[in-house]
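Quick one:
INPUT:
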């Protein structure tokens, strides 16, 4: 396909393509049926839709043959666009937002429909969200990359309605911008779907005036009901009550986004190795969001080594040690002990990090 396309690009760069070469390209490279290819080739024959000017424009703007091939494969109607009156202004629109060079090429490759007639659906949506974000184009681009607004009918109407609803339940200002940037799908959900999602959050004990509401909304929007159920059952298999689970989620909404395997390993380590009471994890569920391999187990090892050497007059609480900034931990528990600093640093940074269960 790449060779055929390269040959076709060479053809249109040097002269007007023949009808037969267009049909060959459409059938062999893009997979159109012959009747459809014949119909499209007739459209190409007019000066307004000749693909030569489109491809020359895209190449003049620095886009590679691979970029162009990807776009045309996904959205062939790009080749029908008027290069100067239609395509160039649309590309300029994205450039004005801050997308240039290879970044723009990658963006369009994922959303080639944005250069087609669906652009007319997208532009008013961008205007609405851009105003909401106070023309912060960096966040706007992140949002655009994560959600294709042009795939739904009347997207600007739905987006405006969902923004209004989210503001009505207290998600406003920077919180609204943050949750939209992280989960732009909230903007294009159907009205009933969005309200059902909010109801689930409220049913889990969050109040409208809670600043954690937005974090819980984001978490549940990322997970299926089945996934949430499995994770709650995992906690309950270790003896946590349903009320414990809800309490933990309210304190740390991001907890349910942690993978099941990481949650299982973390619960086992804290309950069986560190000997935490379950109440400790209920009060500090964020412990289960820390990296076992990079933080928890290495620090637990160092604490145990120092205890075995009788270094401490009063043993520090591991719960507090886990949350120390890295520099402070290194200074207090490794570099402070000059005679054993090398040994401790080696134990902390390398070696077998698996702590035997007691």
């Amino acid at each position: 396909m790449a060779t055929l396309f390269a040959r076709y690009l060479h053809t249109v760069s040097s002269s007007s393509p023949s009808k037969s070469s267009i049909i060959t390209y459409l059938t062999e490279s893009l997979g159109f049926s012959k009747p459809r290819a014949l119909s499209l080739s007739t459209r190409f024959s007019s000066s307004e839709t000749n693909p030569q000017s489109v491809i020359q424009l895209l190449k003049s703007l620095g886009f590679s043959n691979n970029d162009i091939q990807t776009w045309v494969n996904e959205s062939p109607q790009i080749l029908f666009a008027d290069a100067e009156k239609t395509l160039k202004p649309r590309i300029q629109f994205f450039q004005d937002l801050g997308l240039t060079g290879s970044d723009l090429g990658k963006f369009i490759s994922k959303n080639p429909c944005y250069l087609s007639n669906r652009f007319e659906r997208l532009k008013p949506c961008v205007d609405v969200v851009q105003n909401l974000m106070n023309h912060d184009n960096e966040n706007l681009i992140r949002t655009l990359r994560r959600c294709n607004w042009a795939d739904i009918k009347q997207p600007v109407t739905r987006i405006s309605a969902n923004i209004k609803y989210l503001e009505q339940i207290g998600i406003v200002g920077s919180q609204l911008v943050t949750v939209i940037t992280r989960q732009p799908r909230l903007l294009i959900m159907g009205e009933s779907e969005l309200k059902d999602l909010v109801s689930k959050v409220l049913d889990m004990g969050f109040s409208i005036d809670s600043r954690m509401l937005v974090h819980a909304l984001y978490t549940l929007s990322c997970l299926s009901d089945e996934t949430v159920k499995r994770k709650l059952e995992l906690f309950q298999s270790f003896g946590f009550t349903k009320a414990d689970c809800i309490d933990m989620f309210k304190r740390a909404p991001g907890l349910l986004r942690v993978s099941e395997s990481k949650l299982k390993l973390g619960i086992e380590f804290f309950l069986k190795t560190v000997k935490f009471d379950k109440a400790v994890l209920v009060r500090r569920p964020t412990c289960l969001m820390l990296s076992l391999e990079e933080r928890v187990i290495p620090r637990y090892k160092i604490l145990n080594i120092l205890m075995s050497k009788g270094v401490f007059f009063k043993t520090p609480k591991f719960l507090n040690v886990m949350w120390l900034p890295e520099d402070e931990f290194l200074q207090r528990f490794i570099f402070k002990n000059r005679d054993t600093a090398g040994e401790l640093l080696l134990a902390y940074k390398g070696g077998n990090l698996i702590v035997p269960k007691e």
